[in-house]
Amino acid sequence: MKVPKRPVQLSREEVDLVRSLVIYEDPHILALNKPAGLSSQGGRGQVNTLDEMLWAFARPGKARPRLIHRLDRDTSGVILTAKTQPAASFLGKAMMARKFAKTYRAIVTPGATEPREGVVDRPLRREEIGREAYMRVCAPDHPDAEAARTRFRTLAEGQGAALLEVDPETGRMHQIRVHLASLGRPIAGDVRYGGALVVSGQAVPRLMLHALALVFPHPGGGEMRLEAPVPADMAKLLAALKLG
Fold it and tell me: Which of 180, 167, 175, 202 shows the shortest CA–CA distance to 111?
């Protein structure tokens, strides 16, 4: 990952915002609860991304913490950074070795999956349409196929919607979104992949996908689990749909 030579200039509001997102910090790592609507990296326009806002934690003359993984712009939840190069190297290798376990919450429509729990094991391929990138389910022998596996189980079912726990075993772009849509249960608010914008009379403000927990080997030894509470807008919709 390229690191800017000079720190990004942040407003006081941006510094206050990113500092308010911290859910855990020690000498090796910094974890945040990313809000929906904030790009992890590579955003467009004049708005700073989370990656750029990490300059708020940099020591004088030092690089900022480094993102270990990404979340889609409209996905909320746990995101991990490394504060040192050794920690970044350790965590990067652990992720490549699939030693990270991620747990998400998703509101899907029009109801629970059939079966109510299982594994989606369907390769994905990337497709470019204009300036936008999509992922598509494809045949295993497609030249651009990438293996993708997602575990899911139904936690609650209400009128026209269900709450799922989702554990991706691989980390393809939009993997959870595309795999659930392939089951006929797109995530509410996911316009790109067929998600509903209104569920049982309730407006859906955004993609209803939240990275709830992350389990990983800690650079200092042992295993760590971090959790981020479900944001207010998702909790409100869950309550309205009687899903939690």
Answer: 180
93 and 109 inside one domain: no
pLDDT digit string, tens, across residues 135-144: 999 999 999 9
207 contacts 75 by C-beta, under 8 angstroms: yes
Domain region containing 39: 12-97+215-224
Instruction: State the amino acid at position 146 in one-letter form.
Output: E
| Domain harbouring 193, CATH code | 3.30.2350.10
State whether 179 and 111 are in the same domain. Answer: yes
Q: Is 243 part of a structural domain of the chain?
A: no
Enumerate the active-site residues.
72
pLDDT tens column, 158-180: 989 999 999 999 999 999 999 99
Residue 66 domain-assigned?
yes
Could you read off the pLDDT of 88-108 as tens digits, one per residue? Answer: 999 999 999 999 999 999 999
